[in-house]
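Loading example: each entry is read as two labelled lines plus one structure line.
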Amino acid sequence: MSTLAAVNLTVALNGTSVLHGINFTAAACEILGVIGPNGAGKTTLLRALAGLIPRSDGKVYLDGKNLEAFALFERGRRIAYLDQDGASGWAVTVETLVGLGRLPHLVPWRGPTATDCDAVAHALEACDIAHLADRPVNRLSGGERARVLLARALAVEADFLLADEPLAGLDPAHCLQVIETLTQRVDSGTGIVMVIHDLTLAARYCQRLVLLHEGRVAAEGCPDEVLTPENLKAFYGIQAHAGQADGKPFIVPIARTGSAPTTLKEGTPGP
Amino acid sequence: MSTRPEAPSIDARSTILGPRVLLLAALVLALGMVFILSLGVGPADISTTDALAALAGIGSETTQIIVLEIRLPRVLLGVMVGATLGLSGAALQGLLRNPLAEPGLIGVSSTAALGAVLTLYTGAAGAFTLALPLGGVAGAVIGVVLLHILAGRDGGNLTLILAGIAITSMSGALTALVLNLAPSPFAALEIVFWLMGSLADRSFAHVWLALPFVTSGWVLLITLGRPLDALTLGEDTAQSLGFDVRYARTRLILGTALAVGAATAIAGTIGFLGLVVPHLLRPFVAHRPGALLIPSALGGAILLLLADIAVRLPFPGNELKLGVLTALLGGPCFLWLIVAYRRRLT
């Protein structure tokens, strides 16, 4: 079974240290949710795991082998990365855009093979956008675009998918649809590491959670262990109502406790 | 479930491959026609058929000399310069994900022009024929080195554009200084005319001089198709797909500098072609940046040859300069592009 492990992962961006000695292991067949308040270093963690930014210390191991020892295309085939604000620079069709996910698989100077076309078709199907295949990507709604970008990442058919807020901007139905798609992928052996803000979905669909706070792992474990009232208060600065509906967990933020993260009060009169 | 995905994939491949091959065939055919047409244009009254015969070694000696030693190098240089501008425009637009990018943007055209202008000013250009293009190539090389110091290694696209603007304005200022210090109005006029861009009075010596730079630049640029496709979704995604974006950017800058530098050194500054050609052809390749490279090279060559035919047509007063014509046609295109682009964004 594939594993993706961060060992003492430390990253500094523009001289500011963002991640400090992160340790955890993601495995195939599970959704690992990365949660934490804004600015905790979630996106940086994902980018470092994907090998997109240099590390100042520590290592990332894919199946026990240093990530740097992989050839670039090999790494591209094994780890897919879904950008938070990935926007298409050109008005290509949905199918062409999703097909970009097959680039690491292509032989130089050869076109896509039948396998590549099938992977694209499956990704389109899985994200419920097959009917949009010939639509230019600049003529999509926000939710459609998010699903197209997810389909692009799924089309890689990598061992690991690192997804930065794949649910952002989706309506509730498509939220559920996308996360069920991801769950299906997990069932067929993919490992998913996903930044997620919706605590209810995190509690319900992630097998394990990593709670980041100021660049450190504040808590790690199954959702019950991580999403405790104490942790929510200490690291999010919120009081939440947790419960179950139809046997499924939900977490609703009720109030700010005002202690931990200091933010500007809304309604404060300007100068 | 397993049968449904098969159908669109087969459709997709036949529709993607078909129009691309068709487009390339049409462009090659058009280039061939314009090439032949261009051989038949000039002050000496030689028809297209006579010109073709001269190419094959048939016809009077004078005709053969005019066609082979005056017109053929001019047309070949037109193809080289036009293809270079179209290709590097398409590549730069792909890299910067911006349809308003242009080879002149990174400053290499201006430093090449400055290098050439300096040889005119110092009189070296009068002393031996190849001094002018050599000065241009030297200018281009200096421009690339500057660009690398300012925006190399970790520089992002914004740094690249800012560095290009800085280099352009600095070399523009130095070119103005040279004009200011020109020993005589005639020398200044010579420089101004050269800056306007032209393919007149070029020989095979120019072709051979530019060829190694231009072709090596082309090779660097044409092989960037897949990295540019990957960049459709931004640098992080391209990197995650296994492409070394920094390496691709370095190759693109170097290729553009070599090809555009040599082209500017031979023909002067010819603007807007690199901007307009990729834009005209983009819809025909389904907006894919990688697939746009070769069609843009062919389209650039076609447009430049057409423009060069137009400036050789009888015209009252002075002969119109090639760069002036492309700027006259390109300027309004540029405005229209900006308006269309703004509308799409809002």
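The mean pLDDT of chain A is 90.
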